[in-house]
Amino acid sequence: MVDVEAFEEVYRSAKMYHYRAKQFLQEGQSFSVVFNVASVALENYLIALCALYGVEPGNHNYTCLMDTVEEIIDISPALNKEIRSLDLLFGICSIENYYHGNPEPADSDHVLGMCNEVQKLFDPARLAEIRGTLKISNQECLSEK
Known about the structure:
By secondary structure, the chain is mainly α. It contains 6 helices and no strands. The radius of gyration is 17 Å and the shape is globular.
């Protein structure tokens, strides 16, 4: 079952982080700031995709998120591989050997591009369907009062 309010919250966060990353890029902020904010946007987009279909990912690293996302929607192998590669840069895969790589200037553009591609994966019909469910639920609650 889809928790529509939880979905809306994480989807809104994804869009706002994405917007801020683009804004920071236009303002000339350091590429590492743009990269980090865009990475948070990407993570939130992936969490929102999972929430849109009522599926809880096992973890919020990019590998686990992609394991879940590829079970619920079709995603290009190239984009799938690109997103998974972020775990290597962040060094998230190992607690014992944690390593946070230093993003290069091109990495910020690359993550913003991934955000743009993942944003396109949200099916407008599915969004309308779950948002319609929320409206019906809210109307039922009001009529019970």
